[in-house]
Write a structure and sequence with these properties.
The structure holds two protein chains of two kinds.
Chain A: H1 2-6, H2 10-45, H3 47-58, E1 59-64, E2 71-72, E3 78-90, H4 92-95, H5 98-108, H6 113-122, E4 132-138, H7 140-148, E5 156-165, H8 173-176, E6 179-181, H9 184-189, E7 200-202, H10 205-209, H11 211-215, E8 219-225, E9 231-238, E10 246-248, H12 252-262, E11 267-273, E12 279-285, H13 291-294, H14 299-307, H15 329-339, E13 347-349, E14 353-355, E15 362-364, H16 368-371, E16 378-380, H17 381-386, H18 390-400, H19 402-409, H20 433-439, H21 446-453, H22 463-474, E17 478-480, E18 485-488, E19 491-492, E20 497-499, H23 505-520, E21 538-544, H24 557-564, E22 567-574, E23 581-587, H25 597-621
Chain B: H1 2-17, H2 21-24, H3 29-49, H4 54-76, H5 79-103, E1 105-107, E2 110-116, E3 119-121, H6 123-140, H7 148-166, H8 171-187, H9 192-213, H10 216-226, H11 236-249, H12 260-263, H13 275-308, H14 312-336, H15 355-371
Helix pairs in contact in B: 3-4, 3-13, 4-15, 5-6, 5-7, 6-7, 6-8, 6-14, 6-15, 7-8, 8-14, 11-13, 13-14, 13-15, 14-15
The chains are: A alpha+beta, B mainly alpha.
Chain lengths: 622, 378
């Protein structure tokens, strides 16, 4: 060691060190200059670029979702409200690893596969740094758990949002429809602007039909945020414009009366205000809870609804197309009178069946099975309506021919949509020779005309169409097309008025008298209804044969029998002399009209009670 | 030892001639002034970066205080004692580094900490000082410039800890530790030929390094550096944000505590590695120049002390510490400004830190010890 040290030359080493030190100092100086140049470039040369970038960085434009328009019944009762609820959203860009954050969330609160699926589908269409909703209706407890863990959930935000709620649950599911989360295909087809910040859209019913009005106009705010997206300051704000509020003609009390009366059966009721065409009640039984759809119904729940034999999702009032049966007879009687084929005195012999001249086939009257004979040796128009005599109408139909029947009934909107302001309305079928040629590719047989004459065969109508037909009869030749919405943001909406070609007043009187007899005469088919009525009702019963039920092996015998039973129908308006309400009821497999009549009565009673109350109130005030 | 004995009488004479107060307490006043100023400025910047968090400032102050105490103590130890202690220090550090890999405490996917009775420390911090001290100890005994055998041995001395640190994995510190040893070698007169061939070798080894040695996140860092826009929201985020913060500061800056990027949390790690962006944003280029000047003053003083040192050991240690200090500054400011990869090097005495502050100031303590290693006669 010592030897080596002695060999050292301190002077040379010092010189060498100085050289190297000078080199190092020069290098440091150059590197420092490089830094200076870099900072000079960034801060002086590129200043404006970065200054702009910095502004954009902290200033974000955010959509402000508008409040969805409210939907109220005619009494101001809320049918579709907006309730604050918490939504869990993820700002993907801030998570620093989405999969981990998602699994972390999943460990804290329950996430369904569907939540994740919809989230992933929605992701690509979301702007950068915009929150993507992951789970709706976060409970208080879930919120607390998320808050506690927020430090390890970057990019996760829980925001309050207004959510659609249907306080009356199942009562208006079919009448009003529901909103649901915007799905993938809707995302692609929707315009980008109006739905910024809105995650729900009307899926069916009024909610869908009036979507544009209910949605409102999206607002915009410019906010200063930090990198985690927390709003530090609102710089600029254009408030959203709330969606239009809709006041409906629907009356919750009538709706409830219908729901209670139809409880446990499959069927539907539509009641119209004869003056305005306003839909007073529109109920399809069984119903379902629209609230389940707002945030995405679980697959199991949906499957249960979809696969239920009672098809609760099926809107029988608008989509259900049934043979109208004898309910069509008043209109056909009117046609006969108007065309001069019969008078109110004309009689038809009724042995209990009818044959077309030159044909052996017997067309049976429904009463034959019960009494073994016809209604009476001679049946006139009044009796034919009151007792629903098939033979009378077989004869009338044959004389009228199907095409004239079609032309007369078409203005009643049978076989065509009424254009009611909601979705899913079906048109039914009003057959004609032309119709059969086009749809069945076959010629019309004379026997088929007889079936149509009693509302069977090819003829199909929705309860809405039957109710509308009834309101035309009630008003003796005119009516306003059915409407659900009475006021948009308080502004009265006028429905379209329909007027039949002039029909002699006495013809109307004859037909309506027959319809009154249905309820108020002992021989009337709905005489049972008259008990306790303080006003006159004009009605018509109907029975529709159920044909072509699929031989489903899963049905047990009782079930098959039940499902083969006839549909019961009933149309009515009241009061008979000064009508204010017209309605149609169907009870599927009700056996006969006796199942439908009480439903109609319940709703009529509810309506008339309200009318009486209102006039009493008016008298008191006046 | 012999060298020390030879130098002793003259040292005594120097002390006798001008025993200023500073000489008595063995502190270099200019260096101290620079460091105190820097620490003060650093605290000011940090205060803005943490948005006035009292806890963070208190913590930083505690470490700074501790660091200055360690510095003063380190300055009291004559430089020759460092020479003697260096190899032991080095061995201790190596053992600790091995322990870290075996029983270390992890954080963010890396094992860097060793827990000793509730006290956590990073053994790699020890090595930041132990490596240059040891390499200098090894080379100062030889006739300089060092022959190939000694160069190889010196390289091994710096490579071993560097590899262990790299395995933690902590590429940034590994490189800095190796570099601090290399500076000693360079200052000791490492032949330019070696340097040139080493550079050639490094260039050649880039390809295999890239494919077989570097980890994905390290490759990502380099790629992001080359094109930060390629991954705006991922690894490029930090660089884009820091550049935005710096650039938007302009000449004047946005004013103290007014930096929107910092206050609004866009700038990641704003109180640690990226703190220079806070200064650049709030004080503008003026502030950056001011800080650079302050650093320049300290570096210049460090070089002056090293130049004035009378022993080879003192010179090598002093200049190496100073150069390493400069490298910290350069690498940190370079990476934040987007001209170097993000390797996780704090800005000395400004970034919030713990043990690294103490280590850094301990280094300056050694530099002060070097400053007392003066020869009165030339």
């Amino acid at each position: 060691m010592a030897d080596r040290n002695l060999l050292k030359d301190p002077g040379r080493e010092a010189g060498l060190f100085s050289d190297r030190l000078i080199f190092a100092i020069v290098a440091c100086f150059m590197l420092a200059s490089l830094l200076f140049i870099r900072y000079y470039y960034l801060q002086i040369e590129a200043y404006s670029t970065y200054a702009t970038q910095a502004d954009q960085n902290r200033l974000q434009t955010q959509p402000l979702a508008p409040r969805r328009g409210l939907i109220r019944d005619r009494n101001g009762l809320l049918i579709a409200a907006n309730e604050p609820s918490f939504v869990l959203s993820v700002v993907v860009e801030r998570t620093g690893g989405l999969d981990k954050v998602l699994s972390d969330i999943g460990a804290i609160i329950e996430l369904s596969d569907e939540d994740l699926e919809v989230f992933q589908k929605r992701r690509p269409s979301t702007r950068p740094y915009a929150p993507v909703p992951l789970k709706f209706r976060i409970s208080e407890e879930e919120r607390a758990r998320l808050a506690v863990n927020s430090y390890r959930l970057p990019g996760v935000v829980v925001e309050a949002q207004l959510q659609r709620e249907y306080p009356l649950n199942t009562l208006f599911a079919h009448a009003v429809g529901y909103v649901g989360r915007i799905n993938e295909s809707e995302l692609q087809s929707l315009p980008e602007g109006p739905y910024e910040g809105t995650f729900h859209i009307g899926k069916t019913g009024i909610e869908k039909y009036y979507e544009d009005l209910l949605l409102g106009t999206v607002g915009v705010q410019t906010v200063e945020t930090d990198a985690r997206g927390r709003i530090m300051r609102v710089v600029d704000r254009v408030p959203p414009v709330p969606g239009s509020d809709l006041d409906l003609y629907l009356d919750s009390d009538l709706q409830l009366a219908a729901a209670n009366a139809l409880e446990g059966s499959r069927g539907a009721l539509v009641a119209l205000d004869t003056d305005t065409g306003g839909v007073l009640a529109l109920y399809s039984s069984p119903s379902f809870d629209p609230n389940a759809f707002v945030n995405g119904i679980s697959f199991a729940d949906y499957a249960a609804l979809r696969d239920s034999k009672d098809v609760p999702m099926f809107n029988r009032a608008l989509q259900g197309q049934y043979p109208p049966g004898s309910t069509v007879k008043p209109a056909i009687a009117l046609a006969g009178l108007h065309m001069g084929l019969v008078t109110s005195e004309t009689t038809v012999p009724d042995p209990g069946w009818y044959t077309i001249p030159g044909d052996d086939r017997r067309y049976r009257d429904w009463v034959l099975r019960i009494r073994g004979t016809g209604h009476a040796p001679k049946v006139d128009l009044h009796m034919a309506i009151a007792e629903s005599c098939d033979v009378y109408f077989y004869d009338l139909a044959r004389e009228m021919t199907v095409d004239r029947m079609h032309d007369f009934l078409a203005p009643f909107y049978l076989g065509q949509k009424t254009g009611i302001d909601t979705t899913n309305e079906r048109s039914g079928v009003l057959p004609s020779t032309e119709w059969k040629r086009q749809n069945r590719g076959a010629a019309w047989y004379p026997g088929e005309t007889l079936s149509v004459g009693i509302g069977q065969g090819y003829m199909l109508a929705t309860p809405l169409q039957l109710a509308f037909m009834t309101s035309i009869i009630a008003n003796r030749g005119h009516a306003v097309l059915p409407r659900l919405v009475q006021r948009i943001n308080g502004e009265l909406q006028e429905g379209e008025r329909v007027e039949l070609e002039s029909i002699d007043d006495t013809y109307w009187a004859s037909v309506i008298k027959g319809m009154e007899a249905v309820v108020h005469e002992r021989s009337g088919t709905a005489f049972a209804m008259s008990r306790g009525l303080s006003y006159r009702v004009a009605g018509k019963t109907g029975t529709a044969q159920v044909i072509g039920i699929a031989q489903d092996e899963e049905y047990n015998e009782d079930d098959i029998a039940e499902r083969h039973r006839n549909h019961g129908l009933f149309i009515a308006f009241a009061p008979a002399d000064k009508p204010s309400i017209a309605l149609a009821v169907i009870v599927e497999n009700g056996g006969g009209s006796s199942a439908a009549v009480p439903v109609a009565k319940a709703v009529l009673e509810a309506w008339m009670a309200k009318q009486a109350q209102a006039s009493a109130q008016a008298a008191l005030n006046g | 030892m012999a060298e020390y004995l030879r130098r002793l009488p003259s040292s005594d004479g120097g002390f006798a001639r001008r025993r200023s107060l500073w000489s008595v307490i063995r502190i270099d006043p200019w260096l101290l002034l620079g460091l105190v100023l820097l620490s003060g400025v650093g605290l000011g910047i940090l205060n803005s970066a943490v948005d006035g968090s009292v806890a963070a400032i208190r913590r930083q102050s505690v470490y700074l205080g501790l660091g200055f105490v360690v510095m003063v103590v380190a300055a009291q130890i004559p430089i020759y004692r460092y020479s003697r202690l260096a190899p032991w220090f080095y061995m201790l550090g190596m053992i600790a580094l091995i322990l870290v890999l075996v029983v270390g405490v992890g954080a963010k996917g890396a094992q860097r900490w060793l827990s000793l009775g509730g006290f956590r420390f990073q053994p790699s911090e020890i090595m930041k000082l132990a490596v240059p001290l040891t390499v200098a100890w090894y080379l100062a005994k030889r006739s300089l410039p060092p022959g190939p055998k000694y160069v190889a041995a010196a390289l091994a001395l710096m490579a071993m800890p560097a590899v262990l640190i790299f395995l933690q994995p902590d590429l940034g510190t590994a490189i800095l530790v190796a570099v601090s040893g290399f500076f000693v070698l360079f200052l000791a007169g490492l032949s330019w030929r070696y340097i040139a061939s080493a550079l050639g070798l490094i260039l050649l080894s880039i390809w295999p390094m890239w494919h077989f040695v570097m980890k994905e996140y390290q490759r990502q860092r380099v790629l992001t550096l080359l094109d930060p826009e390629s991954d705006r929201l991922g690894s490029g985020w930090n660089i884009i944000q820091s550049k935005t913060a710096i650039g938007s500061g302009g000449w004047d800056g946005k004013g103290y505590m007014q930096g929107t990027q910092t206050l609004l949390d866009f700038l990641p790690e704003s109180h640690t590695d990226f703190i220079i962006a806070v200064l650049a944003e709030e004080q503008g280029l003026q502030g950056v120049i001011g800080l650079l000047c302050l650093y320049g003053f300290i570096v210049a003083r460090g070089f002056w002390i090293s130049y004035s040192a009378t022993t080879t050991y003192g010179r090598l240690v002093g200049a190496s510490i100073t150069l390493t200090f400069f490298v910290y500054i350069f690498v940190n400011m370079g990476m934040v400004a987007g001209i170097l990869p993000v390797v996780g090097v704090p800005l000395p005495l400004v970034s919030a830190g713990g043990t690294s502050i103490v280590t850094l100031l301990a280094g300056f303590g050694i530099l002060m010890a070097v400053s007392q290693d003066k020869s009165p006669v030339n």
